[in-house]
Fold this protein.
Amino acid sequence: MSRFAYVNGRFVRHGDAAVHIEDRGYQLADGVYEVWAVFDGKLADADGHFTRLWRSLDELRIAHPMSQAALTMVLREAVRRNKVREGLVYLQVTRGVAKRDHAFPNPAVLPAVVVTAKALDRAATNAKAVKGASVISVPENRWGRCDIKSIGLLPNALAKQAARERGALEAWFVDDMGLVTEGASSNAWIVDGEGNLRTRDTNANILRGITRSTLLEVIREAGLPINEKPFTIAEAQGAKEAFITGAGSLVTPIVQVDGVKLGDGVPGPVATKLRALYIERARQKAV
């Protein structure tokens, strides 16, 4: 099946899609991105992702490329043209094309927009969640504005590669105080010894995960105890359960941290329940 991408105003075949060599995203990582999970051909957590997109653009002083309504149409068309029922749709907005200079182009140029969509095998990802995954820890070495969903992801890529080389799904960044901040492409959670759900608060240098936000609503509706309090690797290794959240991972149980097995080494009841509740909510609310 042919794939299609949206590039600066038009859809083209995925294999023919290209951007200018002086796009500031390519040369300076001067841009932001968002990723929506797709359920039944619809966008999950749509408004949350748009809110974070506009905030990221505003923080970097990049103009909004179009209205939310227009951008929603582009995203839906990308999903439709690629015949994606279950999967992901990726959006990237950069400052645009300009002669290479660290300072912003003056006068400003039009932002550049790229959208791609791909299908996922939900049965396969669900099977992985049933088995559980492992994480490793790496030193926090990212810039101080991880709240912006920037395309400058080299530290994340290196962390993810380190995880792959050690047979793990994800890497958790650990700050100078020995506290887990977040994963290379996910938010980090544990169920501590007292049965409390814990995850880092967004006042810290972490991304304001949209899946994380929706799951917090699900947790509160379910009446589960939640504490937005950081934890150490040692606390994670001694926890009853652990899991990660994100548009790609949804809610994925973690059964091993830095080689130490959690409990009996299988996904626990809380993470398993929350995955089911999140997916149910995402499907119901998708637009």
In short: The chain has a mean pLDDT of 96. The helical segments are 24-28, 46-59, 68-81, 122-131, 154-165, 210-221, 233-237, 269-285. The first helix runs from residue 24 to 28. Residues 90 and 207 are 17 Å apart (CA to CA).
